[in-house]
UniProtKB/TrEMBL annotation, chains A, B:
A GO molecular-function annotation: (S)-2-hydroxy-acid oxidase activity
EC number: 1.1.3.15
Family, per entry: Belongs to the FAD-binding oxidoreductase/transferase type 4 family.
Higher taxonomy: Bacteria, Bacillati, Actinomycetota, Actinomycetes, Pseudonocardiales
Name this polypeptide is given: Glycolate oxidase
Stretches that traverse the bilayer: none
SUPFAM superfamilies: FAD-binding/transporter-associated domain-like, FAD-linked oxidases, C-terminal domain
One Pfam family, short name: FAD_binding_4
Keyword check for DNA-binding: no
Length: 467, 467
C-alpha cells in the first residue's frame, strides 16, 4: 500500500485519529499499546502498532478505517484479546482498532427473541441480560466471562453448548460491517428466516477481521433451557470412551453438553482441585454429559446416557439432578485450563475437529505423537461435536520446536481422520500453512479472490489467515 | 461475453457438448427444451436455450462449464424446476444445465449423522433413505416429493420444519462446487464444527445458481423426531391469532410446526376438501401447531399451546395425539396450494418474512391491499418463523398489472414491518428490483463485487438475482 495522503507520516496519522476520536480515544504509549498487541496464544508473531484506536461509535470506526486506508496503514481489529490463534495480534506500524468501548446492548426484543448488540459487549453480560427475559444466548467459549461478542463473531466462537445449540454463526441474524473504504454494509435481517441475496452475514462471521469491522450484530436468542442434570462416566480405556460417544450419537441422543478428558487431563484436574475424579478406581478417560431437556425427558435422557456408558465399559457412572453436585462436576471441566497452567510449563492448545466416531483414534494418535516428540500432550475437548483440544506441554525455547512439531502433527492427524485444523479457535497468524493445506489450491484462490473483492488494498489484518 | 473459440457457433457448441456427454446428454428439440426452460412461477421472463445439458458426473459438469465459458455462452443450472422465483428460467441462447441425472445418495454415515448426496436427489428420497437409519433431514419445502436437493441448496429452501429445525443451510456441512472456469472447489467439511477459512459453504447455499454449480453436498442429519401431536385453533379475529403467535414465541414454546391460514384460505381449503375447519362456527384464521417432543414433553407442550390459544381468544381449540387425526389436519395445510389453484384463476405466491410479532399486521395489510387493487389475496404461511405467503388471485392479462402491483405492495409492506422480500423462495428473475431495495447501494455493490470475483465473465445465470 502506498502512502500518498497527508496522513502519510506516523505523527500525521496519529494527529488525524486524535482529531476524530479525542486524546482518550487514541493510545500511543508503548507500554499501554503492548497490552493491545497480542491475544492469549503466546506463540504467534506480533508487531508494534503505530497507535491503538478506541472508537465509540460506528461513525468513528468508519473515520478510523478511512483515515488508515488513505494513509496505507493496516488496521487490526480486536476485542478483549481472548483469542487463541494470534488473529488480533498487531502488525508493525498498524493501527489496532479496539472495539471494547462499543459495549452497549442496544436492544433486547424478547417477543421476537432477538438482541441487538455492539461488538464490545462481554459474552457473559449478554447472557445475563437476556436471562432476565428467560432467554438464552448459547455460544459459551471458555473465556465467556471476559471475551467480547465482536471477537466471538470474528472467530465464529464455539464452546460447550455446540453439541445441541451450534456455534456463534447459528445465532447471528444480521450485521453492520464497516468495509475497507469506510462504507457501512448492513447484512442479513431481523427475521429468523430470509434468503434475499447472498448470505453475507455468515461470510463475515469467522472471517477473523480480514474482511471488515463488525460494529453491530442482531442475534437470535432461544428460550432459557431447564436446569441441567449431569452425568459423569470414567473409562479405563480411551477406546471405550470413544465407543460410548459413537453410540450416544448413533442412538440419537442429543445431550446439551458432552465433554471428554483423557487420563492425563483428569489427573491434572484432580491434582489442581484436590479432588477424586475416579482415576484411582481404575478410571481414566472421563466423559461429562448434561441434559437440559427438563423433567421426565431429562431423566429419560440421563438414563439412556448411563446405560450406554455402562454397556461401553465404564468403570464408574454417576448421574445427578442436584444442581450443586452438577456444578462441582462442571467445575472439573472448567478447571482444565488452570490445571494445565499449574503443570508449571508452557503449553500450546490445539483445536482440531474430527468426525465424532474418530475421537478415540485422535486421543491414541496424540499419545503416539507425545512419545515421538518426548513431550506430554493432554487431550480434552467437546466430544459431542468432535472438537478436541490436544495441548502440548513444553518448557522454554529448547522444547519449542518439538512442541510446534507435535502441534502440527496433531493437525495433520486431524486432517487424516477426516477433520479440520480448526474447530473453533481460528487460523490467525499461526496456522496459515495448515489452512492452505486444508483448503487446497482452488479453495485458497477463492479465499484470496473474495478478500481482494472486499478489501482490494489490504487494509484489514493483512497476512492473517492467509497471504 | 465474446465468442472467440471453435465453439463460437451454436452448432459448434452443441457438437462439443455432445462429444462430451453423448447424444442422450444433450437435448436440442424445442418442445423438449421447453420443459426445461422455466420453473413453477409463471410470471418471470424466460428465454429459449441453445441446448439442455444433462451431465452424469462432476467431471461432465466441469466439461460443460468450460465449454460454455470458452464459447461465451451463459449457463443456467437447474434441478426439477420446482422453484418459485424464475431463478432457473432459461435465457435466450444459454445452455440449461439440468442436474437431475446426478441423483445418487453417495453415502449415509449413520454413526456421524452425515449424508453425502448428488444434487439431483429428490428431497423425499433422501428423507426416506435416512429414516431407515432413524435419522431425519429436516428441510421440507412444499415440493419435497419432487424437488431436488440441488435446487433446495441453490435457493436455501425452507418448509414447515423451519420453526424448530432451521432452513437448508442449517443442514449443510460442505459442498463440491464447479466454478466459472471449470475448476472444482471443495467447501466446508464433514465435521459438525469447523472454522478453517471463510464460510464459503453458506455463501453458495442460496446463491441461486449465480456463483457456481453444486455437484455434491455433505449434509448434517438429526435423530428422527417422535411422532407429532397436533393442535388446531380457530380465531374469529386475525389480531387474536397474531397475539397467540406472539405469546407462543414469548413464552419460550418451540413447536415443531406452526402454520397460519387466514379466513379466505380456510374457506378455500374447506371447499376444496369438503370438510369443516371451523369457519362456520365463528372461526376464521386458523393456527395449526405440532409438537414432536414425544411423551410427557409433547403433552406438556400441546397443553401450553392450547392454554395460550384459549387465552388469546380462539373460538375453537382441539389437540390430538392420534396420528390419523393429526394427518387429516396436516392434509388441510398441505391442500392450501391445490385449494388456491381450484379457485379457478391464476395466482402469484408472495414470500415475505416478518418478525413474528408483526404477522397480524401483515395479514391486515394484505386485506387493505386487496381492497385497493380489487383482487382477492389469500394469506397463509409459516407463523413460527414469520414467513408468510400472501397469494394474489387474478384472471388473465387484464388483471396481471394489478396483481403485480399488489405483489410488490406486499413486499413493501413486509419491508416496512422490519421484514424481508424473500423468506424462502428467492429472488430469481422476478424480484431483482425488490432485492436492490432491501440490500441498499452498499449491499448491492458488495454482491456485485463477490459475484465478479467468482465469475468475472458472467457465465452463471447472468441477470438473475441482480444485474
Amino acid at each position: 500500500m502506498a502512502s500518498t495522503s497527508p496522513a502519510g507520516t506516523a505523527a500525521g496519522l496519529v494527529d488525524l485519529l486524535t482529531a476524530r476520536l479525542g486524546t482518550s480515544g487514541v493510545l500511543t504509549d508503548p507500554d499501554v499499546m503492548a497490552a493491545y498487541s497480542r491475544d492469549r496464544l503466546p506463540l504467534a508473531p506480533s508487531g508494534t502498532p503505530l497507535a491503538v484506536a478506541l472508537p465509540s461509535s460506528t461513525e468513528e470506526v468508519q473515520d478510523v478505517v478511512r483515515t488508515c486506508a488513505d494513509a496505507g496503514v493496516p488496521v487490526v481489529p480486536r476485542g478483549a484479546g481472548s483469542g487463541l490463534c494470534g488473529g488480533a495480534n498487531a502488525l508493525d506500524g498498524c493501527v489496532v482498532l479496539a472495539l471494547t468501548r462499543m459495549n452497549r446492548i442496544v436492544e433486547v426484543d424478547a417477543a421476537n427473541r432477538v438482541a441487538v448488540v455492539e461488538p464490545g459487549v462481554i459474552n457473559a453480560d449478554l447472557r445475563q441480560a437476556v436471562s432476565a427475559h428467560d432467554l438464552f444466548y448459547p455460544p459459551d467459549p471458555a473465556s465467556y466471562d471476559f471475551c467480547t461478542l465482536g471477537g466471538n463473531l470474528a472467530t465464529n466462537a464455539g464452546g460447550l453448548c455446540c453439541v445441541k445449540y451450534g456455534v456463534t454463526s447459528d445465532s447471528v441474524l444480521g450485521l453492520d460491517v464497516v468495509l475497507a473504504d469506510g462504507s457501512l454494509l448492513r447484512t442479513g435481517r431481523r427475521t429468523v428466516k430470509g434468503v434475499a441475496g447472498y448470505d453475507l452475514t455468515k461470510l463475515f462471521v469467522g472471517s477473523e477481521g480480514t474482511l471488515g469491522v463488525i460494529t453491530r450484530a442482531t442475534l437470535a436468542l432461544r428460550p432459557l433451557p431447564q436446569a441441567p442434570g449431569t452425568l459423569v462416566a470414567s473409562f479405563p480405556d480411551t477406546a471405550d470412551a470413544g465407543t460410548a460417544v459413537t453410540r450416544i450419537v448413533g442412538e440419537g441422543l442429543v445431550p446439551s453438553l458432552m465433554e471428554i478428558m483423557d487420563a492425563t487431563t483428569v489427573r491434572a484436574v484432580e491434582r489442581h482441585l484436590g479432588t477424586d475424579l475416579g482415576s484411582g478406581d481404575g478410571g481414566g478417560t472421563l466423559l461429562l454429559c448434561q441434559s437440559d431437556a427438563g423433567g421426565e425427558a431429562a431423566s429419560r435422557e440421563l438414563a439412556a446416557l448411563e446405560r450406554v456408558c455402562d454397556e461401553s465399559g465404564a468403570a464408574l457412572v454417576h448421574a445427578t439432578t442436584d444442581p450443586a453436585e452438577g456444578g462441582l462436576l462442571m467445575q472439573a471441566r472448567r478447571s482444565v485450563h488452570p490445571a494445565i497452567e499449574s503443570m508449571g510449563a508452557q503449553h500450546m492448545i490445539d483445536d482440531v475437529c474430527v468426525p465424532r466416531t474418530r475421537i478415540a483414534e485422535l486421543i491414541d494418535g496424540c499419545a503416539r505423537i507425545s512419545e515421538e516428540v518426548g513431550l506430554r500432550i493432554v487431550v480434552n475437548g467437546h466430544a459431542g461435536d468432535g472438537n478436541m483440544h490436544p495441548t502440548v506441554i513444553y518448557d522454554g525455547d529448547d522444547e519449542f520446536a518439538r512442541a510446534r512439531t507435535a502441534f502440527d502433527a496433531i493437525c495433520e492427524l486431524g486432517l487424516s481422520l477426516g477433520g479440520t485444523v480448526s474447530g473453533e479457535h481460528g487460523i490467525g497468524k499461526f496456522k496459515q500453512d495448515l489452512l492452505a493445506r486444508e483448503l487446497g489450491p482452488v479453495g485458497l484462490r477463492v479465499h484470496r479472490d473474495i478478500r481482494r473483492a472486499l478489501d482490494p488494498h489490504g487494509v484489514f489484518n493483512p497476512g492473517s489467515m492467509f497471504e
